[in-house]
Design brief:
Helix content: 55-70%
Shape: globular
Radius of gyration: 31 Å
Structural class: alpha/beta
């Protein structure tokens, strides 16, 4: 019997085309949650979270077991089994092809790889025919909503791909209405707009095609302050000129317009309210992919690159071939042969063929900490424009979103230094116009693709490299010795480079001296593996001829985690000052044992080739006692903690108020630290990956857990300001596990508190409550400073959930603890929270008094974030009193302070409410423009509460100008978000606005339902 499972619409089961009763709604949710991971185990607690989300009943686990049992009976007739897996999870043993969502993805992949358009069209149509409505219809939990967004995005990508295929086949008849409706939903998507223009033109409706362009041009100018992209402009000009070739062979669909980056401010948002469709909420069938950035992640091309002309020509030929599916070029060869340099040079040579960007990552496949696909995908997705807060939390979802984003783009992906196929498989693009370059020391026989093995340089190319380093005259004056050096180095570029660097640093040395020394050294190393001999010979020669201080510095540098570092890290390892560390690094750079990388905001970053690192570590293990190596790494951890704690304190965003300096056993001088941290946020952006690596290296050890957890805790503010939520959660969960495992209750309490802050920001309120409560349990016998911020954080979540009595009790307790501990930041935060509750419950005068106190305390203490927050809240109070000019002034002051601090999210909190005030003052255009910009930023940060608040303000703005239909859409979107995250008080407010919009549109029954629900929420 053939059983089919459907989740692209309502959740259904059919056996031999006959519907099967899969039970009531919750039971079908359990089935769907298992089907998404067909034939993979899903832990029971994950299932509970997927099915119930924040509304898990007290007997959730028991109910889950009951649903599983009943589903087993439903599915038993055809042998489909739900098995209990080791560790408490469940696995639904079903072929992916029996599940419509998996079949849709398979058909989509096959369509992109199809050999011709006829086949592609048939596959796209078959894939899209599987859809019967919105995925998981009726299932409303955070997980189902996120999955629905993801699938809806893939559906849209498929629809666009099918339209491209039909246009190439000149099957545009009947497409106008379909494309017009799609443009209405996505009015700033230039690819869809181009499809509609071309279709209209081919249907003899040239004037309408030109009108579509003009309408788009005005909208882009008014809402984004930009012109249409070059591709769309080109299509417009060809239509205007009546280009006959358009009737036969349509041009490539124009790409979507680039979105603002950190270096490019967000443009002015729309003055009218069509931006609802221009920027549909992520909660409404719009995955976090609306911003198309063009990543340029290739490292700088090397100025010194010789030989490989034939290989480069072959790489360009292979990457330029037209073929079904993406091209994968596998560059293989031994260590030191120059694979990385070759990949970078190739990437720059073919970059013009990939106008949608180039992604690059060093996978560190043969290092101590190989990069994992989960983390790399997070980096790639952010580079592609996905806001940090909306990057999916599970690997499979990241893979799906990554492939969806690249499906219609021309993007090059360079995956350097891969250990094997497993590390790269999820990172390969699936878009038919994409390409990947993978480098590895292994052959990766199990990975399909075009292979390009790199051998050693031929003698002439090797001499060319030496000539470039030493100059033609010097090389040719001792040609025999030069050839001997290249031959002894085995033609390996790295070995030739190391030998040449030594000679370049000693211009008075004859080449024959180095040639003889290399030959002697190689004979001593003949037992080593082929391919490493030449490099080791060159390294040994250089190592023996440098000073003992340089030798020791190389040994210590090799202990560092990760590929890049700054001079302060070596200063800690050597137990010296910064200038001494910089001096010895200059010496090591001169002989090319260390490479000087990019110059960032706080100085030069240095790098070690992995073979040099391996050599240095061998020497460290031979020549440096273990206790001295451990002491050096302890100093590195202490220095990292000292700088991170000072950077966090300088930004003063967090209210934890717990200094980690008591855990610091070594530090740079105040002058050196002050120089490095002149711009604390820039320093953190430069050092983020290194600091995480230092913390993880320490957490892997058996000692120093407290300091390692302290570093993870100290990074909280820096993670928060930069929206590095993945890094925040991954590192601190690891720190929490280590702290609990070692019995360090105090460290565990601090990390729990920080994870509570993270999950609050991410609107995962039940998790946040649990983290804060665990922090308080672990810190019950500790000083007040350890309990104050956790208590305040718990109070804040209770307020968001509308649990005011609990929130007041905890805020009052937090204020008392903070006062006794001298934690002004936390005292301000807790007092402000009490004021917000007063404001939300109508006690405006009491709220004003609380906020005024916060403002005074913050200014006395120099706590600028607290000052900005107090001003925002005073603005809210004046808004409630109808004192709009005073409210606007408070919001502007708050925004200015947050702008000065570099805190974009807090700026948005102020400008959002400023926009609301301007609307109330009759400045509708400017007010809605500010609100739309705020909406954009909240989506970028993945801040659902802020998004909902802005949508609600826009709804009220629409009501104010007599647009109830648009107001209803805004209010509905806000209500959906507040319902999802469980914010009861604001849900009731949003329902009230929705009821008003329904009344004005004449839907009185819907208005009554909304008011009734609002009343139930308020009295619950």
């Amino acid at each position: 019997m053939a059983t089919r499972f459907a989740i692209l619409g309502t959740i259904e089961v059919c056996r031999n085309a006959v519907p099967v009763d899969a039970g009531h709604e919750m039971q079908r949710r359990v089935l769907a949650a298992l089907l998404v991971d067909a034939s993979r185990a899903v832990p029971a607690d994950v299932l509970v979270d997927r099915v119930w989300g924040d509304a898990e009943p007290a007997a959730g686990r028991r109910q889950l077991y009951g649903y599983i049992s009943r589903l087993r009976h439903v599915l038993a007739d055809d042998g489909t089994a739900i098995t209990r897996e080791r560790g408490g999870g469940y696995r639904l043993a079903v072929r992916p092809s029996a599940v419509d969502a998996h079949r849709f993805r398979d058909l989509s992949d096959r369509a992109r790889e199809a050999g011709d358009d006829e086949q592609a069209e048939a596959l796209w149509r078959e894939a899209l025919a599987l859809w019967r409505g919105s995925a998981f219809a009726g299932a409303d939990t955070p997980w189902f909503n996120a999955q629905r967004d993801l699938l809806d995005g893939e559906r849209l990508a498929a629809q666009i791909e099918l339209a491209d295929v039909r246009l190439r086949l000149a099957r545009h008849g009947g497409m106008v209405n379909e494309l017009a409706a799609r443009v209405e939903r996505h009015p700033l998507d230039e690819r869809v707009i181009g499809q509609l223009m071309l279709t209209l033109y081919r249907c003899g409706r040239q004037a309408e095609a030109l009108h579509v362009y003009e309408r788009t041009r005005r909208r882009l100018a008014g809402e984004l302050g930009v012109d249409p992209g070059a591709a769309l402009r080109g299509l417009y000009e060809r239509i205007l000129a009546g280009d006959p070739s358009l009737s036969v062979s349509p041009p490539p669909s124009p790409p979507r317009p680039p979105s603002p980056t950190a270096a490019q401010p967000v443009p002015a948002a729309p003055a009218d309210e069509a931006e609802t469709e221009a920027n549909p909420p992520i909660t409404e069938a719009n995955p976090p992919m609306a911003r198309q950035l063009v990543p340029r992640l290739l490292p700088a091309d090397l100025s010194l690159f010789v030989g490989r002309d034939d290989a480069l020509d072959e790489a360009r030929r292979l990457l330029g071939e037209e073929q079904p599916g993406p091209v994968t070029l596998l560059v293989t060869g031994p260590a030191g042969v120059g694979k990385s340099a070759f990949a970078v040079r190739t990437g720059h040579l073919v970059a013009a063929r990939f106008p949608d960007g180039q992604l690059h990552v060093d996978l560190r496949g043969f290092g101590d900490e190989p990069a994992d696909p989960f983390t790399v995908l997070g980096t790639f997705l952010r580079a592609l424009g996905v806001p940090g807060g909306t990057v999916p939390a599970e690997l499979i979802d990241r893979v799906h979103l990554y492939r969806t984003l690249l499906a219609g783009r021309r993007t090059l992906v360079v995956l350097d230094n891969a250990a094997g196929a497993r590390q790269v498989r999820d990172l390969l693009p699936s878009g038919i116009r994409c390409a990947a370059v993978v480098t590895s020391r292994t052959t990766m026989a199990e990975l399909p693709g075009r292979r390009l093995p790199l051998g050693v340089l031929d003698p002439e190319a090797g001499l060319g490299l030496l000539r470039e380093m030493l100059g033609r005259d010097r090389t040719e004056s001792d040609a025999e010795a030069a050839r001997s050096i290249v031959e002894t180095c085995g033609g390996l570029p790295l070995a030739v480079w190391v030998a040449g660097a030594r000679l370049a640093a000693r211009p008075h040395w004859p080449l024959a001296k180095v040639a003889r020394a290399l030959a002697d050294e190689q004979r001593k190393l003949d037992e080593l593996a082929v391919g490493h001999i030449a490099v080791r010979a060159s390294l040994e020669l250089t190592y023996r001829q440098v000073t003992s201080a340089m030798q020791h510095a190389l040994r210590m540098t090799a202990l560092l985690p990760g590929p890049g570092f700054a001079a302060w890290a070596l200063a800690a390892l050597l137990d010296t000052d910064l200038s001494a560390a910089e001096a010895v690094l200059d010496d090591l750079v001169e002989v090319h044992l260390v490479q000087a990388g990019s110059a960032d905001a706080t100085g030069i970053r240095y790098e070690l080739h992995d073979l040099v690192r391996h050599f240095g570590r061998e020497r460290a293990e031979q020549d440096v006692p273990e206790r001295d190596r451990a002491a050096a790494l302890t100093r590195l951890l202490a220095a990292s903690l000292h700088l991170a704690d000072h950077a966090s304190d300088a930004l003063s965003v967090d209210f934890q108020g717990i200094s980690q300096l008591d855990l610091v056993s070594w530090r740079l001088s105040d002058t050196e630290a002050g120089h490095l941290l002149a711009d604390p946020l820039a320093w953190f952006n430069d050092e983020r990956r290194f600091l995480i690596d230092v913390a993880e290296q320490a957490l892997d050890g058996t000692e120093g857990v407290a300091a390692a957890a302290g570093l993870a805790t100290a990074l909280t503010t820096l993670f928060q300001v930069g929206s590095h939520f993945d890094d925040w959660e991954t590192l601190q969960k690891r720190a929490l596990k280590a702290a609990l495992g070692s019995g360090d209750r105090l460290s565990a309490a601090k990390v729990h508190r920080c994870l509570g802050e993270l999950t609050t920001i991410l609107d995962r309120y039940p998790e946040a409550v649990d983290h804060f409560e665990q922090a308080l349990l672990l810190a019950v016998d500790q000083e007040p400073v350890y309990r104050a911020s956790a208590t305040a954080g718990l109070a804040y979540v209770h307020r968001l959930l509308g649990q005011y009595s609990s929130a007041v009790l905890h805020f009052e307790a937090a204020a008392g603890l903070a006062a006794s501990a001298g934690n002004v930041n936390c005292l301000v935060y807790a007092t402000n929270g009490l004021g917000v509750i007063d404001l939300e419950q109508g006690r405006v005068e009491a709220a004003v008094a609380a906020f005024a106190k916060c403002l005074e305390l913050s200014r006395i203490a120099g706590y600028r974030p607290g000052e900005a927050q107090a001003l925002r809240c005073l603005g809210q109070s004046r808004r409630a009193l109808g004192a709009y000019p005073a409210a606007a002034d408070a919001y502007r002051q708050a925004a200015a302070i947050s702008e000065e601090l570099g805190d974009r999210l807090s700026v948005t909190h102020a400008t959002c409410w400023l926009g609301d005030i301007l609307v109330r003052q009759g400045e509708h255009g400017e007010g809605r423009r500010l609100l739309a910009r705020s909406l954009w930023t909240y989506r970028e940060f993945g801040n659902l509460w802020g998004e909902a608040a802005t949508l609600h303000a826009l709804a009220e703005a629409q009501l104010a100008v007599g647009h109830p239909v648009l107001a209803r859409r805004r209010a509905e979107a806000a209500v959906r978000i507040w319902r999802r995250i469980g914010s009861a008080r604001w849900l009731a407010v949003g329902l009230g606005t929705l009821a008003e919009a329904h009344t004005l549109t004449g839907d009185h029954a819907a208005a009554v339902r909304a008011r009734d629900e609002a009343d139930r929420v308020r009295t619950a």
